């Protein structure tokens, strides 16, 4: 007799595989029918049917998946999603699945149908939408049952069969997990409670009040706000004189001379004027044609085109400040 107890009117889904003996499923179906009575239902499916059939949504109180021997195949992510969808909110999935003690996709170079561990199976169940997991047990598959699975279910024969049995013995286990579907269904929506802000109840007709931050709101959470105007004194409000921005050691005794670490632009200005007074001799003959014809080391880069021998002059406002203080 199954250990799970159900109420009259409950709907149960039993899922086996094409290798499960029909009398196994039928015996369990009859026993559950006695619990749910004529007002409930106990339906049966196989894992293979889930690949091309759609289960009804939010229908079953419980699903028993792969609970019948031989337990030889793992559920695909699509199948787990289907099982979550067919359960009612709060419904329970009773699942059995073969797992490995350590993850791998092959054994001795032979690809096998089982790749998951208990941890990776739980991750797949979470991604499918299940919560509240109860891992009941992980029993080792004995050699006789393993031999039957490898040869008659997976279809390996000869030396390959023997290699798989030797490689998987002690590594292949059967885990039983109960997982719950959340108490809400996919796509469920509900209204959030309206928050009262400063005595104003939020609604669609008073959206501005929701996003209004008053001084009182700031004081409650952060204390009194500082007035930034009182942080400035009279000296901070005085505009600096332009002459005060030039370092005094840049121009001494009336001579225009840039200091060592000039930052006011005089050093660059004097460098340009020096080049204009002592024009370099062109090595390529293209200096006067403009930047499109000049080499990468041309001293005239950035200057306008000119006639050979002509003195290069810059615009009168080129070295003037863009912003007057």
TrEMBL record:
Say if the entry is tagged with keyword Iron: yes
Q: Which residues take part in binding [2Fe-2S] cluster? A: 250, 259, 262, 264
Keyword Cytoplasm found: yes
Its required cofactor(s), as named, are: [2Fe-2S] cluster; [4Fe-4S] cluster
Q: Which residues bind [4Fe-4S] cluster?
A: 284, 287, 295, 298
Output a single Gene Ontology CC term carried by this record.
Answer: mitochondrial intermembrane space
In its UniProt record, a GO molecular function of this protein is: 2 iron, 2 sulfur cluster binding
Which GO BP terms, alphabetically? Answer: iron-sulfur cluster assembly
Sequence ranges assigned to domain Anamorsin N-terminal in this UniProt record: 9-189
Locate the motif Cx2C motif 1: 284-287
The residue ranges of the Anamorsin C-terminal domain are: 281-314
Q: Where in the cell is it found?
A: Cytoplasm; Mitochondrion intermembrane space
Q: Which family does it belong to?
A: Belongs to the anamorsin family.
Q: What is this protein called?
A: 2660_t:CDS:1
What organism is the protein native to? Answer: Ambispora leptoticha
């Amino acid at each position: 007799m199954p250990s799970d107890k159900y109420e009259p009117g409950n709907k149960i889904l039993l899922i086996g595989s094409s290798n499960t003996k029909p009398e196994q499923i039928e015996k369990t179906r009859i026993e559950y029918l006695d619990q749910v009575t004529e007002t409930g239902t106990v339906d049966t499916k196989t894992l293979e049917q889930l690949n091309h059939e759609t289960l009804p949504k939010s229908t079953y109180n419980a699903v028993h998946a792969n609970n019948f021997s031989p337990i030889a195949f793992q559920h695909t992510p699509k199948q787990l999603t289907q099982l979550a969808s067919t359960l009612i909110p709060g419904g329970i999935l009773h699942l059995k699945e073969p797992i490995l003690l350590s993850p791998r996709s092959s054994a001795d170079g032979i690809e096998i149908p089982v790749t998951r561990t208990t941890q990776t199976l739980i991750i797949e169940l979470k991604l499918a939408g299940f919560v509240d997991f109860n891992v009941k047990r992980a029993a080792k598959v004995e050699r006789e049952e393993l031999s039957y699975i490898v040869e008659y279910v997976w279809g390996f024969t000869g030396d390959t069969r023997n290699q798989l049995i030797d490689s998987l013995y002690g590594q292949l286990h059967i885990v039983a997990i109960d997982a719950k579907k959340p108490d809400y269904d996919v796509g469920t929506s509900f209204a959030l409670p309206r928050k009262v802000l400063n005595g104003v109840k939020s609604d669609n007709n008073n959206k501005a009040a929701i996003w209004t931050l008053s001084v009182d709101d700031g004081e409650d959470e952060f204390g009194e706000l500082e007035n930034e105007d009182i942080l400035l004194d009279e000296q901070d409000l005085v505009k600096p004189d332009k002459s005060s921005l030039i370092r005094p050691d840049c121009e001494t005794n009336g001579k225009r001379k840039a200091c060592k670490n000039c930052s006011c632009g005089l050093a660059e200005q004097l460098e340009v004027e020096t080049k204009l007074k002592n024009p370099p001799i062109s090595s390529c003959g293209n200096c006067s044609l403009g930047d499109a014809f000049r080499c990468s080391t041309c001293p005239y880069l950035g200057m306008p085109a000119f006639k050979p021998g002509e003195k290069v002059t810059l615009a009168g406002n080129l070295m003037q400040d863009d912003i007057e203080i």
